[in-house]
User: Fold these one by one.
Assistant:
Number 1:
Amino acid sequence: MHYFEFREGELFAEDVKVRDLVKKYDTPLYIYSSKTFKRHYEAFDSAFDGIDHLTCYSVKANSNLCILKMLSEMGSGMDIVSGGELFRTLKAGVDPSKIVYSGVGKREHEIREALLSDILMFNVESKQELEKINQVAVEMEATARISLRINPDVDPQTHPYISTGLKKNKFGLDIEQAMESYKLAQKLPNIDPVGIDCHIGSQLTSIEPFIEALNRIKSFHAELMDMGIEIKYLDLGGGLGITYNEESPPHPSAFGKAVKENLQGMKLKLILEPGRVIAGNAGILITRVLYTKKSPSKNFIIVDAAMNDLVRPSLYGSFHRIDCVTQKDAPLQKADVVGPICETGDFLAQDREIREVNQDELLAVFSAGAYGFTMSSQYNSRPRGAEVLVDGSNVTLARRREVYFDLVDLEEQCF
Ligand code: LLP
């Protein structure tokens, strides 16, 4: 059963008619389903039942406070990549001892803030970063728990922009450099090397690359143990894919089973950083048809959501299923669904088969719960839309629609 489904020809979000939400909150509108978020979190987390583990939801996928609070109340930890994400997680009441901090460019004040909060650990991506964290920790008379992010040089077979575990990517340290840095970590007074980390990419649709990476880490882990470095945590990152169109990614339970089988004998706490697999299909974006037009070679459906609201199609050529919110019999056509932004790359779909639509009709863009709102902008001075969270028949405004004043507020303060 899906929580975004048609009932008698009308799209519902759980028990609420999408059209009623639009009457109240207008478009563009992000709608999230609590029950889907919860189901996805549980399916993922329970896949690792039987071994010591911590699921750290990757905040960048969808960082709305309501979502963070809901997941945190279910026991989730968080994977953060900035001081801003730390701020959000703390605001949402997340236990800092369940926060891991990844990313290649942590600034000094961000490191200080994370140390002050006493987060679980930093996932460190370079020797210089390691030295910087030590320096800040010395100044604060604190100890920083760290893991080093290994770049295992494994091809995740996904879009090049979201591959991260290849030699040519900016992420992590190759095995040799990582060994040097662990030796350094052992000597640095205010660093406690407690973990090994790796994240090879996003939207992976097969298990093999994960297992390949895990196997490289396993032999590396044995070497670290021989050196007397006691590793307590193994962070395997995120990356499990979802179905946008016709992909058939492994179910989290199959992923969990394979990881557990390959971990045998390792006495470590496993950390996972899923983002998309929890949030992606838990959100939709609703947009209104403004105009339709036919050029000699194309049909265009011009809608009020644009690349500033959902950039994935423009940035990665990603496919998002689009359906009319109200079903009816009408001839099918091939059309580009485009936004009002002055860029040829501003589209939500190209050459898509969709029924003919009228002005003011509503369209639903599916699988928009991850990397949707979090990647939005105000480009073309377009105030961002609202976000609502539905739970059964309850609706919470999770973020109000921006108004024109929000576009200039920070600039007016400078006059
Ligand atoms: N951990 C680290 C260190 C990451 O860099 C990421 C994602 C994750 C976990 C979560 O990965 P997930 O489970 O969501 O695949 N904007 C792109 C995706 C970029 C992913 C960046 N890192 C998109 O819209 O497809």
Number 2:
Amino acid sequence: MSETLEQSAGRFDTVLIANRGEIAVRIQRACRELGLKTVAICSEADRQAPYGKTADSFLCIGPSTAAKSYLNQDAILLAARLAGAGAIHPGYGFLSENAAFADAVEKAGLVFIGPTASSIAIMGDKISAKRAMMAAGVPCVPGPDTALPDDPATIERIALEIGYPVIIKAAGGGGGRGMRVVPKADVLHEAIALTREEARKAFGSRSLYMEKFLEHPRHIEIQVICDDHGNAVWLGHRDCSMQRRHQKVVEEAPAPGIAPDIIQPVGLACVQACLQIGYRGVGTFEFLYEDGAFYFIEMNTRLQVEHPVTEMTSGVDIVQAQIRAAQGHVLDLIQGDVTCEGHSFECRINAEDPGTFLPSAGVVTHLALPEGPGIRVDTHIHAGYKVSPYYDSLIAKLIVHAPTRAEAMARMREALAGTEIEGISTNISFLRALFEDGPFAQGETDIHYLEQWLKLRRAA
Ligand code: MV4
């Protein structure tokens, strides 16, 4: 039988991986396992990248500065054309949540491995994202799903209705950028003026919204995967509360101490939201969790750094599933098939000074990585690898899986003990100390815990 245009439209046999580092390795592996050819790209600083040698083609697309290479849309599209790629995987960061890029990829006749440009745009505007979630029955932080007006009296009324403290956020912000806490009424207008000005400069939009400020929440997220045929499932939850300056350091799945019957309706509401907006591929719903309740804050429309912990507990290869969804395949699992087995942790190993947290560049002179049952390392580095100062300092992810949370912690301690990286500074000693911490072992943390722990540790 001959195929219709629709059936063949999403097909491709070669994927250009528009990213670098560990995620370039991870995506290349998934492509190869699916029988797809790969095109690796690099900046001048990344010419020695190991994934260049294992790709079917490898092209240098520009200078070391990300703006001139990994963020250069025309250079990436040209590389895709030259190498005969039929699809582009953006990874995370860089162009992964750029609606204009997703649109340009599709207009060039290629497949963007991710949601549609319109889904990215809806979630990129945090007010339209909140409106879509409220419409789908996803629980949100108290506050309007509309932009703040200019009229001072109306703004005051909204704040009083929500109740202080409130938080002012830029619609174009996200990930911790463009927000300001307002403890009480006397600083409301000043906070709005400052945040508006920052938003205008940083995001080109003066649009703001207001929410109840939650003082001690945990950051819990729900992973979803959807196809183009009206199927969507959620793959469980993760706790990402252990962060410093909005950079996650340790993630785990499942989030500890969350009873299945309280998360279940939240997961189903996320699935419902995906179906309502026609979402395709993988996505993450971010929630704040406080006093037993979930409050949606943002949706990430990309593959996330911490996807491995969910792969370990669900047994689903999230990157393969994402690529297959982009090919137009029907999702090969239903909600009833999804289980959560055991417990998984991920440690982000960064090339940074343990005291100042400043990036540490240089040559890795010695490398020993842990191995064994329930241990996974996602990395692009090897002995002799030169860590360049141009990009994010993430050099490896240490991931463990064990039957219980306590056993997974013990396994992570062992894995960290078996990790040796010399020639550059890393945060390994700090991660080792964290896995000896009592309250963390008890799951007694919130989004402020790590920064407080660091403060105490510095004082000691
Ligand atoms: C909040 C909040 C408290 N209340 N919203 C920061 C990142 C961005 N995704 C949203 N963020 C927050 N939004 C309300 N209504 C506290 C934070 C927040 C935070 C959230 C998740 C993980 C770490 C955080 C660190 C500081 C503040």
